[in-house]
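User: Sequence in, structure out. Go.
Assistant: Echoing your sequence, followed by the structure tokens.
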Amino acid sequence: MQYQEPVREPETLLTEWLRETDWQLGKSGLESLLSRYAEPLIRRIVTFKLGSATSRNGGGTPRADVEDVCSTAVCNLLARLERLKGQGDQPAFRSFSGYVAVTAYNACNEYFRAKKPAWLRLSMKLRYRATHSPNFALWES
């Protein structure tokens, strides 16, 4: 019979990792947190966002681009977690999964901005004009 680790909430694992002083135990806790919760969620979001954006344009997203965006999101997440651990007694995230999702969406947005900088400049100019001119307006629908 094989030992199976009990399923725990990601916030619990995060709190345990933040409190852990032993480097080796902390490393295994972080690996568990990333492999069970963060990486699968990041991959689902990035695949969805990049796939839906390119399917509208008739092309497919190269697998390398998906891998790059996923790696960027994981690196950004690790940097944030290390800063959080270095702060000591600061409160963690209310929702670890929510933070991971926002990190993945931000990585996708960085990818889109780098892919089409002219489109970003145009959209920013239009937004500025719509919000700073009395002749135009923006509505949220």
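User: And one key feature?
Assistant: The CA atoms of residues 17 and 30 lie 6 Å apart.
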